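Weekly structure sync - notes
Attendees: PM, LS, DV (DV joined late)
Agenda: review two folding runs queued last week.

Item 1: First target. Sequence and structure tokens pasted below for the record.
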Amino acid sequence: MSDLTSSGIYFQADPELQQVATRSADFCVKFIQHKFGKNADYSEAFVPEIENILHLLHLSMPASKPSEDDIEQFCSMFGSYLGETYRRNRGGAWGVSDGRTPTLSFGGGFKSFPSARVYKRLINGEEDNVHHWYLGMIQYGSGGASTQNTPPSTPPPLPQSPSTAPKEKGFFSKLFGGR
């Protein structure tokens, strides 16, 4: 069932995507424990730690030159964790918008694109701070933000890397233990 939300973005709940997001978020928890020794517990108090980890990774990207596949996998994992943290604490539903974009629908018909936000954080740095973004979701979800004259913004799809040549193992592959 598809519906047009108040923001004008089509959204379709997807129980299968919910399962994928949950598994990916759980993998993120294990990854954080293994690589950083921290207990990611889906609490909102842990969101600043996610920002700190993404900050460190952003700083290391120029030297490590991760592949687009590595970045996309990382964005999916951390985006799922952030979306699941919001959904578990404040409600919401995973689904797709524009036919294929993984989307978290929350309070009052608002839509969020957690994986795209993580991508922007890794590429752009502090200007796309995920902790500030998360606080904004809380504000919008509770009806505390004015939505008049604010056009919705749909993020661009994550870039696809060409698959013509075998890829050298990059930074994120090394973080994932050579996966």
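Item 2: Second target, run right after the first with the same settings.
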Amino acid sequence: MTNQLDIRLERRDRDPLPPDALLKFQVINRGKDPRDNYRWVLYEDGRYHLACHSGKHEDWRVPFDTPLPESPTGQLVPDQVAAVIAQLQQADFFAQPAYQADMTVEDGSFYVITARADDQVHEAIYEALTPPLAQFLEALILIWTSQKKI
């Protein structure tokens, strides 16, 4: 990992993954507009908790200004949870480097994925890279939330 992370990465959601959670996914704009930033935590039973940036553009260096809700935002069906697990395995996620970047890209996003398998928890940060796992997770939550009108 680099010696000096971007301030937004330093301020990412660094809370430990809850014991029965499968995954935490964070999307942080690399530009100076945090309105599209969001994060969600997926539990093994399919519950997920989603928090989006409020849209107030007070400090671009603060990626999240709303807490994760205490009650689930929604529920994925077992096949969707199984697909997340399959994508983690296909990506060989637990062997991924902790930090990957494409420094030729000026804008883009930071993707932060934290996942659990058995007793192992691993976090990977992708700067200006969108690996297939991040594409899958982004599409999954965007499709699901558009259906729920969140």
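Discussion on item 2: Residues 7-148 form a domain with the Mago nashi protein fold (CATH 3.30.1560).
Action: LS to circulate a short write-up before next sync.
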